[in-house]
Amino acid sequence: MRSFRIGRLFGIPIELDLTFLLILPLFAYLIGTTLGEYASLINEVLAPANLVEVSALTGDSTVALVVGLLAAVGLFVGVIIHELGHSLVAMRYGFPISSIKLWLFGGVAQLSEMPEDWKQEFNIAVAGPIVSVLLGVVSYVAFTAVQPGGTAIAAVRFLLAYLAVVNVALAIFNMLPGFPMDGGRVLRALLARNRPYAQATQIAAEVGKLFAIGLGLFGLFGGGGLFLVAIAFFIYIGASSEAQRTVMAAAFDGVTVRDIMTPDDDLKTVTPDTSVADLLGRMFTERHTGYPVVENGRPVGVVTLSDAQSVKEVERDAYQVEEVMSRDIESVDPETGAMDALEQMQAAGVGRLLVMEDDELVGLLSRTDLMTALDIIKQGGAVSRSTDSPRPALGRTN
Ligand SMILES: [Zn+2]
Question: What is the CA(188)–ligand 1 centre distance, in A?
Answer without folding.
Answer: 14
